[in-house]
Design brief:
Blueprint: H1 2-34, H2 36-39, E1 43-45, E2 51-54, H3 93-108, E3 129-130, H4 132-137, H5 139-146, H6 150-159, E4 161-162, E5 173-175, H7 176-186
Antiparallel strand pairs: 1-2, 3-5, 4-5
Helix pairs in contact: 5-6, 6-7
Length: 195
């Protein structure tokens, strides 16, 4: 019996060391060497070098001088610990009422047609990016709040727009956190806008 148990124990110890310690350490080492920013959470820093968030997780920006993100269904909004969508279908009356309320609020601001990402949540509720069309729709409000010209705000947002990954995967997008940091740096308001 010992002759049968011994190989099982040796195999368990070997594979635990190999796959439970060796492999994770090797993958972590490669990730830290090849992609240090991504391996550490794609952290974003401000001009003072303070970490202000991650480029992968949305934050709530509600002040008129800032680019606003997509709506969130994650917890009480943009809660990474409660990441999820609403799971409402398009015919759900609660979903339809929320979308209508959000669209009505955007219509009071005026502007062009309302892009779909302005009133719908992402699957995680933490999408850090918005479409260039939604960013364009917010330019006048941001310019008014910052006392700047719409052309100046548009210039900053265009510089913050990223094209499709590898040139063909996905759609152009604007990272809200990075764009708002660029706005603070390049279009400062006389009185800093409320976040």
């Amino acid at each position: 019996m010992l002759s049968q148990i011994r190989p099982a124990i040796v195999s368990m110890v070997f594979f635990t060391a190999l796959l439970g310690l060796g492999y994770p350490l090797a993958v972590t080492g490669i990730a830290q060497a090849a992609f240090p920013s991504q391996a550490n959470g794609s952290l974003v820093t401000d001009r003072a070098g303070r970490t202000v968030g991650s480029g992968l997780i949305a934050q709530a920006f509600a002040g008129p001088g800032y680019l606003h993100p997509r709506p969130s269904a994650a917890g009480k909004g943009y809660d990474a610990a409660a990441s999820s969508g609403s799971n409402y279908g398009p015919m759900n009356p609660d979903y339809a009422a929320r979308v209508k309320t959000d669209a009505d609020a955007l219509r009071t601001e005026g502007g062009a047609a309302i892009p779909v990402d302005a009133v719908t949540t992402s699957g995680s509720g933490l999408d850090p990016d918005i479409s260039p069309a939604y960013a364009e729709r917010q330019i006048q409000r941001i310019a008014d709040a910052r006392g700047a010209t719409p052309a100046r705000v548009r210039e900053v947002l265009l510089a913050s727009t990223t094209g499709p990954t590898l040139g063909f995967l996905g759609q152009p997008r604007v990272n809200v956190l990075k764009a708002n940091l660029a706005l603070d740096a390049r279009v400062p308001a006389a009185h800093p806008p409320a976040r």
